Amino acid sequence: MTAATNIPDARPPSRLATFLELRAPLDWATILLRAPQLLSAPRGDGRPIMLLPGYGTDEASMRPLGRYLRFLGYDVYDWGMGRNRGDVDGCVAAIGDRVAEIHAQLDGEPLTLIGWSLGGVIARETARLYESFVREVITLGTPIIGGPKYTAAAERFAKSANIDLDEFELEVHARNSAGIRQPVTSIYSRLDGVVGWRASVDTYNRQARNIEVYSSHFGIGANGRVWRLIAEILGGRST
To answer: At a CB cut-off of 8 Å and minimum separation 6, what does 170 contact?
Structure first.
């Protein structure tokens, strides 16, 4: 951590890791390879779960996972906002309203939020700001530290959004330092070619679990091992 701000150390992914994102289809294939493990995973208890897609993607990217979770017995909701265009504050406000509405419809039952990449940032902020409506957060390859600073698209994002990456990192650090009270799990990969893996490790919350997997960034949400982990987390099994 840096002495001045105590921001955890992180760095962008290597160029080799970014190039190896081409292997994402191999991660998708692990769903078939791990089919016996997926079929024998702990069954769900019907709790509500909302899936939040990554930057530039929409609900379709999370629907395979959603179908699997419904198979297990969970009540799965799309985030209902179409493509994730990167407006974190706007998305958090909208998702906060949506989880509050669902919470009321379900007689006060809180939701579990599962977010892929930037969707995980939105899930964490929603949990922090709308605490009573969120039961638990699980993130997949999410840039917890630094915002976009430690991603492969850092410079391009900084130019398009006209932001200073160092200043933005301080803002993100301040938000993270406020903490999250709910159970929170970060699933990450050292092979991630989009988000530097150190930036995906949650060192802010004592209750946080950080679980390493073998996956690309573009495959982590459709990886058989990750799906099994999610089923175990939701089922209350230790990992």
So the answer is: 5, 7
The pLDDT value given to residue 76: 98
Q: How far apart are alpha carbons 228 and 38 in whole angstroms?
A: 6
Calpha distance 82→71 (Å, rounded)? 24
Contact 194, 151 (CB under 8 A): yes
The burial of 16, by beta-carbon neighbours within 10 Å (0-12 exposed, 13-18 middle, 19 or more buried), is given as: exposed
pLDDT tens, 188-200? 999 999 999 999 9
Buried b (16+ CB within 10 A) or exposed e, 58-81: bbebbeebbebbeebebbbbbbeb
Q: Are 148 and 157 in contact (CB under 8 A)?
A: yes
- Three-state DSSP at 186 gives strand
Q: 237 falls in which pLDDT band (50, 70, 90)?
A: low
Dihedral (C-alpha) 165, 13, 58, 87: value to the nearest 10 degrees? Answer: -10
The yes-or-no verdict on residue 5 having pLDDT over 70 is no
Q: Is 90 exceeded by the pLDDT of residue 3? A: no
Closest to 176 in 3D by CA, of 216, 211, 139: 139
Interatomic CA distance for residues 53 and 57, integer angstroms: 6
Q: How far apart are CA 66 and CA 78, in angstroms?
A: 8
3.30.565.10, 1.10.3720.10, 3.40.1700.10, 3.40.50.1820: CATH of 15-234: 3.40.50.1820
C-alpha–C-alpha distance, residues 88 and 55, integer Å: 10
